[in-house]
Amino acid sequence: MASGPLREPTFLILTSLAAEPRHGYGIIQDVEGLSEGRVRLRAGTLYGSLDRLVEQGLAAADREEVEQGRLRRYYRITGAGRQLLEAEVARLAANARAAGHRLGLEGLAP
Amino acid sequence: MASGPLREPTFLILTSLAAEPRHGYGIIQDVEGLSEGRVRLRAGTLYGSLDRLVEQGLAAADREEVEQGRLRRYYRITGAGRQLLEAEVARLAANARAAGHRLGLEGLAP
DNA sequence: CCGTTATATACCGTCCACCGGCATAAGTCA
DNA sequence: TGACTTATGCCGGTGGACGGTATATAACGG
Closest nucleotide to residue A51 (Cα to C1')? Predict the structure, then answer.
């Protein structure tokens, strides 16, 4: 159930929700921004990941709005999601630090 | 060919090779150490990953030794592998920084 | 007035890295 | 003798990501 480390798309989706509740399309745009253009989520990736996050209790449906005839379904991060994301940040930072050390990339700005 | 981001096991295997050439079993032990006991590579994961790394030119067979009747097959990281690992370190660090920011984990030691 | 782009959600088949178990084999230690 | 460590390697199953497609409306541009 509580599977291994988050893959990048899922990690970024959770990160996107950490600031405030967002709807699907908003997440896609936000993730592109916070990854500095590196990650462009596909619809299939997003909604599949979102379903899994809800199923695992890491995110939850927040509310629904109808904006100009289009439905917007908002999601928010849960306490468990925030906790797991914090652990993931620590893991990524530790891995980056360890590998940087091995590569001799000592003086790298945080 | 140059597929997406490295998964954690592959990342740590490359990291292990970054310091010096190592044989399979040595990698398993080293990875357990550098991940502070978090990651225990299975043989299946290791040798599969190693084959892929060689196939992609990120690692190469270094030499073979026979130590007390047991064969040791050493692998080393290539220039391309080192380059990719550096890029991966930057990616991980950027993701950790972005998520830490969103979580309000500002004052975290690098 | 019509086609394209942007907004927005959702399904589905495919791929592949990782997982876990198993096999093999020689040396060590109790 | 049997358990454990070192050491390499195969194989089936799982699951997340990918890419494409479908659906629908609004806005923009030619």
Answer: C10
Q: How confident is the model at residue A69 (pLDDT cuts 50, 70, 90)?
A: confident
Query: Which residues of chain B neighbour A92 with C-beta distances below 8 Å?
Result: 92-93, 95-96, 99
Residue whose tokens read 């379903």: A51
| Domain with residues A8-102, CATH architecture | Orthogonal Bundle (1.10)
Mutate to test the interface with B, among A6, A12, A17, A95 (most CBs of B within 10 A): A95
Four-way CATH pick for B8-99: 1.10.10.10, 1.10.1330.10, 3.30.70.20, 3.40.50.720: 1.10.10.10
Beta bridge partners of A22: A75
Q: Where are the domains of chain B?
A: 8-99
The neighbouring-strand residues paired with B66 are: B71
Amino acid at A25: Y
pLDDT digits (tens, 9 = 90+) for B69-87: 889 999 999 999 999 999 9
CB A98 within 8 A of CB B35: yes
